[in-house]
């Protein structure tokens, strides 16, 4: 069969449609459809591994260790309405909502009397990533801990009476809007089966776009990072556009800066960074009003400021006085999240996806080794190492290409002066290495039981008719898919993995989706975004955009191997027009946290489509974190 190259025709409808990726670099359309079964994939990988001296002996053992038949909960039906639903036999409680107190001296939330000072002490807007860390530090306590929560972006039409447009806010509104970004860290405790925020806790903290931070790694100190605020290229302020994230084995939180291009105004072509900004999708057509009042977000006044965002940020939630660190060794892109795995040689491997259509999957391998007895040293592991980008090759192989200055095309001839430049221009570097352009890579997580790596690919509706193959069976891929990658002999530092299609999402009656053949009418989903694994290795999938298919977003769960592989079951669903984010378990798997983001996003403050979770006429819909427990106690999923 002849495989044709697609001819893309972009429409910029949202941040993920920005056509910043150039045509070079192999897309999935360039990959042959030779793999007709998982057995042929294994044969191809084994042959390649033998040629390179890589062992495959651990692969079958890893695959055989996964769980069977653990998901016995009764499925929830599809639907769409104004409220939150969870499977029968489970209870949910709203733990915290936009405007609730984080700091002890925060005022009670009053949407008619908001201020930046109040919002800087209250829970922010549009919660996304949720990470639970047990208290005390180093324990596996499942009834007491810290919760770190991202606040990705805001919707001014839902936040303020009168529903002002985001780029037309007054200065007072813009300041409130700014303080609603960033993160919240809260202490929580479970008493009599119910979770609650510990008010007045020394750990409770807000992190915002003006919090003092520090750049680390190869780009720190670069002249390209010098601004009026950061004259040394090391000091930096704040974080925003925080999508998903991760929790490290040494008890820190990683937060991912994603769609940061929307905050800047001005003409990027008149800056020295015009090429970088074009590749990043920064047009200067700002969606927020911050640049109307602050030079920091005006390219004419601070042309290097955009290079201070687009990074993975590491935060120590156990030390409220600690300064967050931006880890430039992990590259600058639209990071969806970042998840860390301790390899068998004790080096750490961090996986991250660049969440935009036709962008890339990355992994970072640390130079130094994890030492469970030396937390201080572990907190520097993400400063030094090698970043790789994935090329998905014929026969079901992933080849990891190192992004190292001086190797291959990453030289002065292509505009790179040092490793810092490679990390700042990581998309350009990945282009030059011929990495595979993917369909919006989002969460990339390691299954703790099998060692396989699962990649959530949300969608790519820009694929044309006639450009399909076995790896991409549908044109206009509205609903996304999930890929499983398996490292040889469980070695995540290896330069070649095996890959296979796990699920092709969407309605199997209309979209040619592929699941387990026994999937129920409620078991299908669309637009996989975030994910989590329980202690049995089951995959829990959160979605973003399923409502376009006539069903609410939510969470579906399935086994990853055995007879029930890819047999997804519907566990929960969100209120109208809400996205489900940040699925996260307590260590004992008896509690499950998640974020409900942008409930009622198609409405306005004055004309809401839902008033979840309060259902009070004096309150708009409020993004919230939800805690779920099994009625009477027990493992989530049983």
TrEMBL record:
Pfam families: PhoX
Name of protein: Predicted phosphatase
Originating organism: Hahella chejuensis (strain KCTC 2396)
Region feature Disordered, mapped onto this chain: 1-24, 463-484, 603-623
SUPFAM superfamilies, sorted: Calcium-dependent phosphotriesterase
Organism lineage: Bacteria, Pseudomonadati, Pseudomonadota, Gammaproteobacteria, Oceanospirillales
Superkingdom field: Bacteria
Biased composition, class Polar residues, residue ranges: 469-480
């Amino acid at each position: 069969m002849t495989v044709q190259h697609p001819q893309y025709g972009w429409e910029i409808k949202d941040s993920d449609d920005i056509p910043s990726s150039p045509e070079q670099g192999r897309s999935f359309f360039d990959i042959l459809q030779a793999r007709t079964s998982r057995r042929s994939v294994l044969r191809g990988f084994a042959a390649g591994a033998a040629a390179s001296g890589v062992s495959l002996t651990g692969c079958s053992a890893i695959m055989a260790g996964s769980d069977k038949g653990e998901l016995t909960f009764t499925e929830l039906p599809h639907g769409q309405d104004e409220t939150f639903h969870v499977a029968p036999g489970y209870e949910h409680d709203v733990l915290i909502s936009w405007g609730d107190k984080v700091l002890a001296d925060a005022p009670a939330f009053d949407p008619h009397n908001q201020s930046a000072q109040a919002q800087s002490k209250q829970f922010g807007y549009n919660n996304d990533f949720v990470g639970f860390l047990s208290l005390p530090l180093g324990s596996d306590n499942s009834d007491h801990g810290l919760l770190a929560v991202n606040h990705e972006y805001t919707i001014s039409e839902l936040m303020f009476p009168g529903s002002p447009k985001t780029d037309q806010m007054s200065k007072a509104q813009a300041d409130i809007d700014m303080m609603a970004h960033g993160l919240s860290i809260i202490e929580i405790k479970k008493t009599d089966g119910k979770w609650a925020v510990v008010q007045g806790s020394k750990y409770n903290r807000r992190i915002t776009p003006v919090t003092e931070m520090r750049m680390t790694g190869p780009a720190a100190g670069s002249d390209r990072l010098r601004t009026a605020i950061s004259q040394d290229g090391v000091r930096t302020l704040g974080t925003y556009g925080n999508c998903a994230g991760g929790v490290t084995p040494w008890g820190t939180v990683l937060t991912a800066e994603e769609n940061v291009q929307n905050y800047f105004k001005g003409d990027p072509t008149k800056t020295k960074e015009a090429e970088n900004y074009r590749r990043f999708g920064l047009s200067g057509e700002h969606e927020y009003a911050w640049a109307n009042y602050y030079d920091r977000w005006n390219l004419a006044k601070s042309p290097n400021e955009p290079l201070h965002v687009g990074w993975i940020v590491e935060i120590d939630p156990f030390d409220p006085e600690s300064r967050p660190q931006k880890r430039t060794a992990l590259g600058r892109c639209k990071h969806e999240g970042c998840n860390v795995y301790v390899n068998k040689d004790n080096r750490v491997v961090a996986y991250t996806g660049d969440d935009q259509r036709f962008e890339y999957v990355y992994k970072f391998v640390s130079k130094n080794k994890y030492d469970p007895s030396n937390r201080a040293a572990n907190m520097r592991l993400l400063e030094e190492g090698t970043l790789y980008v994935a090329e998905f090759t014929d026969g079901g192989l992933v080849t990891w290409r190192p992004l190292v200055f001086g190797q291959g095309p990453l030289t002065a001839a292509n505009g790179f002066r040092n490793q810092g430049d490679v990390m700042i221009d990581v998309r350009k570097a990945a282009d030059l290495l011929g990495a595979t352009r993917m369909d919006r890579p989002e969460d990339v997580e390691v299954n703790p039981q099998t060692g396989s790596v699962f990649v959530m690919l949300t969608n790519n509706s820009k694929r044309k008719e006639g450009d399909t193959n076995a790896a991409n069976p549908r044109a206009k891929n509205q609903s996304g898919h999930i890929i499983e990658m398996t490292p040889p002999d469980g070695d995540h530092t290896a330069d070649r993995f095996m890959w296979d299609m796990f699920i092709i999402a969407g309605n199997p009656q209309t979209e040619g989706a592929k699941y387990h053949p026994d999937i129920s009418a409620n078991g299908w989903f669309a637009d996989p975004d975030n994910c989590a694994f329980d202690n049995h290795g089951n995959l829990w999938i959160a979605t973003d955009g399923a409502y376009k298919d006539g069903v609410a977003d939510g969470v579906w769960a399935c086994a990853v191997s055995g007879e029930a592989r890819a047999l997804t079951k519907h566990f929960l669903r969100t209120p109208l027009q809400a996205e489900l984010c940040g699925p996260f378990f307590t260590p004992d798997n008896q509690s499950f946290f998640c974020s409900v983001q942008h409930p009622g996003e198609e409405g306005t403050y004055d004309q809401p489509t839902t008033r979840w979770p309060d259902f009070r006429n004096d309150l708009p819909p409020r993004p919230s974190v939800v805690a779920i427990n099994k009625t009477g106690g027990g493992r989530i999923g049983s």
